[in-house]
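Inverse folding, one chain.
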């Protein structure tokens, strides 16, 4: 790293740390929609100005499989300025993972039929993100990453496909 990038990075961190620290969780309740690789609904309940619990019910589907999950997260919120905050947390989820029925043809012309199969999904989840409270409205938008480790699925540590965008109504 050369001098200029180090300087600008240090300046950016200094500005973030020196900005007013009044942005906390504005309301006790927030409900909305979450979009990303998994789409669903979410509800957040503020336990204090800086702690909250969040529930997410999501579905994810493609041509070969589908996933349904109920996620519970405990979050820590930290202010950046009056309208922005960042948060991190941890929790877990339970759900189901279903492989859709399909047929495949071998090189020799043999057709294999693969039946529909469902499995229990149980995971440990993390979350880290940033939230913007839209001024003069009861709306908040957030962008986060929610990696998880699924105990029962093979190849189940997910980081890349776990980005999400949420819009919430705060009340």
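Residues assigned per position:
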């Amino acid at each position: 790293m050369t001098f200029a990038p180090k300087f600008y990075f240090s300046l950016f961190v200094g500005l973030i740390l020196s900005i007013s620290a009044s942005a906390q969780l504005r309301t006790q309740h927030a409900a909305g929609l979450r979009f990303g690789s998994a789409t669903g609904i979410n509800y957040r309940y503020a336990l204090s100005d800086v702690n909250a619990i969040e529930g997410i019910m999501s579905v994810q589907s493609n041509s070969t499989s589908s996933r349904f999950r109920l996620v519970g997260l405990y979050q820590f919120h930290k202010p950046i300025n009056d309208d922005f905050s960042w948060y991190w947390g941890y929790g877990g989820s339970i759900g189901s993972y279903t492989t859709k029925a399909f047929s495949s043809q071998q090189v020799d012309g043999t057709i294999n039929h693969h039946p529909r199969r469902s499995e229990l999904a149980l995971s440990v989840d993390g979350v880290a993100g940033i939230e913007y409270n839209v001024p003069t409205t009861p709306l908040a938008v957030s962008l986060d990453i929610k990696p998880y480790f699924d105990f029962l699925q093979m190849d189940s540590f997910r980081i890349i496909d776990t980005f999400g965008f949420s819009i919430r109504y705060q009340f």
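DSSP finds one helix and twelve strands in the chain. Residues 13-23 have pLDDT under 50 and may be disordered.
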